[in-house]
């Protein structure tokens, strides 16, 4: 049985390998130095217990992560949490966005840039850049002068 990340040393990603955005987010997450647990729901089934745990960690409601356009013909149908979990279990394509779990919180990743704040990339988030700092120039030999 899988467990979701509850510390700052592991990232858990639940995604659908059939969607391009989900695959790109998975690729970005693989660049992290943290432990990474990925669950591709198109290849592997997630238990109702784990869906219930996911639902409890979501920042919003369960219906916000389920895309019913392809699966339901009645647009006015109302589903319970249990119904939505069954839809996700039986039809993995209904997961609208990848879910990233880090420090016991769930984040719905809607674009690739959102992943960068979790994986600590070297090229993102510089506090200072070359154009904001004055150059530090000093003489390395006695005869050189850098003043005109």
Secondary-structure element string: EHEHHEEH
- Counting helices, strands and paired strands, the structural category is alpha+beta
Total of DSSP H or I helical runs spanning 4+ residues? 4
- Rg result: 22 Å
The overall number of domains is 1
Contiguous runs where pLDDT drops below 50 for at least 5 residues: none
Biggest sheet layout: 4 strands, mixed
Q: Distance N terminus to C terminus? A: 71 Å
**CATH domain fold name:** Glutaredoxin
Can you identify the CATH class?
Answer: Alpha Beta
Proportion of beta-strand residues: 5-15%
Number of strands: 4
Order of strands in the sheet with the most strands? 2-1-3-4
CATH architecture tag:
3-Layer(aba) Sandwich
Identify the overall geometry.
elongated
Q: What's the CATH superfamily, by name?
A: Glutaredoxin
Question: What portion of residues is helical?
Answer: 10-25%
Mean pLDDT score, rounded?
81
